[in-house]
Amino acid sequence: MLDIKPKDLQKIMKVLTGNVPEYEVLAYGQRATGRANTHAYLDLAVMSDAPLGEARLSKLSADFAAASLPFRVETVDWAATGASYRKEIKRTAVTLRPSGKK
Q1: Is the pLDDT of residue 42 over 60?
Q2: Count of structural domains within the chain
Q3: In the chain, fewer beta carbons within 10 Å around the N or the C end?
């Protein structure tokens, strides 16, 4: 149960498609549980097999900042996270967008 308005979800999907079209993306944290307060970030995990690289993550962050969303989007690279953080992500994760791989 994502706490995101449909118009904002469209913007998010456009940014994801333009930057990480081949990866599944999970939403986790307050907005994924439907218990977000007004200032809650949207936490996303890009389910990569290998680290995405700083340039790609920076562009993704910049595109989210330019999308004029009413909340901040924080993105993590799954391949660059540790086991304990992965466990925390999985605790509240919902699939925002399935993998675009064929």
Answers
A1: yes
A2: 1
A3: C
Neighbours of 32 (CB within 10 A): 24
- Within-domain flag for 78: yes
CATH number at residue 89: 3.30.460.10
- pTM greater than the 0.85 cutoff: yes
**pLDDT exceeds 90 at position 76:** yes
Give the pLDDT confidence score for residue 72 in this predicted structure: 95
Mean of all residue pLDDT scores within the chain: 93
Instruction: Report yes or no: 72 and 32 within 8 Å, Cβ to Cβ.
Output: no
Q: Which of 56, 57, 12 shows the shortest CA–CA distance to 31?
A: 12
